[in-house]
Amino acid sequence: MRKHIVAGNWKMNNDLAQTERLIADLKKQSKTSDTEVMIAPTFTNLWQAFQNLRDYKIEVIAQNMHYAENGAFTGEISASMLKSIGVSTVILGHSERRAYFNETDDLLAKKVDAALAENMRVIFCFGEELADRKAENQETVVENQIKNALFHLDADAFNNILLAYEPVWAIGTGETASPEQVQDMHAFIRQILETKYGKNVADSVSILYGGSVKPNNAKEIFSKPDVDGGLIGGASLNAEDFFAIANAF
Ligand code: PGA
Questions:
Q1: Which residue minimizes the CA distance to atom 3 of ligand 1?
Q2: Whole-model pTM above 0.85?
Q3: Which stretches within 119-246 are classed as H helix?
Q4: Residues 177-211: pLDDT tens digits?
């Protein structure tokens, strides 16, 4: 079933004390609603965040992971390590990982497989760059990113996959895709899912939008029929702003 989801990607922000302070602020803002709320602190603070939020409906999720189970991969973290501290959702394919850490579609396909094998949920990110949009090539780029990393999966796997459309030109730039651009792309994504897996899968996968979502634009973006939530960067670092977005549904 499609759910409303708002996930905060903290990126490389907040040391331990700052993490605890922001979580304390989030607890004050948190109230019961049907929207699933998630936060993704850095690896070093995941355990503490998980402990602090035990009795709250705010899920602690990871920003990345390696595809291998364990072994000689200095500096990396595996799916089973995340699971062992209570983290069962992971963001994969964020454009910053693709751009700065050379994450390719092939690598991401392996990461997706490894996460699903551990029964984790994946927030799979993709999106075109400005040059693609200017060349009106955005649909081809997005279609390839999705196909290359996900279309080897069977339909059941999509029970554990959330998609996040994040046009690179709108991330951290203050520039947002217009609600119509977002809706058009989300409808296109549902269409390619339907062609490959049928209507049931297409209608049941949650598709989030990411890219400069703020309290003042969330309502309009979330009002679009194919938008099921948001992946929030900058605005997730402030509890009031983050919950203003989460409550925008
Ligand atoms: P932003 O980041 O909200 O700061 O644009 C979104 C993201 O990178 O997921």
A1: 233
A2: yes
A3: 130-134, 138-150, 179-197, 199-204, 215-222, 239-246
A4: 899 999 999 999 999 999 999 999 999 999 999 99
